[in-house]
Amino acid sequence: MIKPVVEKIILGIDPGTNVMGYGVIKVVGTKASLVTMGVIDMRKEGDMYLKLGHIFQRVNGIIDSFLPDEMAIEAPFFGKNVQSMLKLGRAQGVAIAAAINHSVPITEYAPLKIKMAITGNGNASKEQVAGMLRRMLCIDEGEMPKFLDATDALGAAYCHYLQMGRPETGVKGPKNWKEFIAHNPEKVSKRKDAGIGESGE
Questions:
Q1: Closest CA to 115 of 167, 69, 162, 82
Q2: Scanning 10, 82, 91, 112, which has its CA 20 to 30 A from the CA of 2?
Q3: Band of the pLDDT at 1, cuts 50, 70, 90?
Q4: Which domains does the chain have, with CATH numbers?
Q5: Can you tell me the distance from the alpha carbon of 69 to that of 103, in angstroms, rounded to the nearest whole number?
Q6: Are 143 and 31 in contact (CB under 8 A)?
Q7: Distance of CA 59 to the CA centre of its chain
């Protein structure tokens, strides 16, 4: 008996207090494709608590619209500014609460982990991550968003796709950049077009 092709929707979130990115991919079997990506823009909202309410409403709306099976969220970067970290942590927590509200499983990834999974370089720039995602997901240049927060969120979702196994199909997806390039040489043969040299810098 032939098993049906397994489909999964993954939502990626890049937390932010002024601009929060989101990206949604669809996985069919072992292939991933872009569904949508964008940002939640809160720059005109001055009150922090109203921003948190807006995040909760919008993430709930995104989940209602795309019905993700899982959510991948970027962990806050530990910087020197404690107040900024506190605000970012609150924003991340509200997005997580929205996922919990819909019983969506959540996985958190460090920024370095996401960059390494996408580009093979933990110190890659946001532009390099965006360039590699455009190539790997075959996104037209005209479809690339203005805000890199959106591609950062898409990176979280794609990192989750690369990390997860697929027992339903008897096949495991590539767990890192080296495995991906070994199985998809045609997609990365012109890696420099994405702004990344052979050394990954």
A1: 162
A2: 10
A3: low
A4: 7-194 (3.30.420.10)
A5: 9
A6: no
A7: 14
Q: Which residue type, as a one-letter code, is found at position 62?
A: I
| 93 Cβ contact list (under 8 Å, min separation 6) | none
The residue behind tokens 């933990």 is 122
Reported pTM = 0.78
Catalytic positions, written as ranges: 14, 74, 149
19-28 and 106-109: which strand pairing?
unpaired
How do residues 162-196 score in pLDDT, each as one tens digit?
A: 987 533 333 344 545 555 556 556 545 544 444 44
Please state, as a whole number, how many other Cβ atoms lie within 10 Å of the Cβ of residue 84: 13
Residue 179's pLDDT is what? 59
- What CA–CA distance (Å, rounded) separates 138 from 133? 8
| Per-residue pLDDT tens over the stretch 59-112 | 999 999 999 999 999 998 766 677 888 889 999 999 999 999 999 999 999 999
Are residues 35 and 65 in contact, defined by beta-carbon separation less than 8 angstroms? no
Task: Quote the CA–CA distance of 168 and 138 in Å, as a whole number.
Answer: 25
Phi first, then psi, for residue 29 (nearest 5°) are 65, -110
What CA–CA distance (Å, rounded) separates 123 from 134?
19
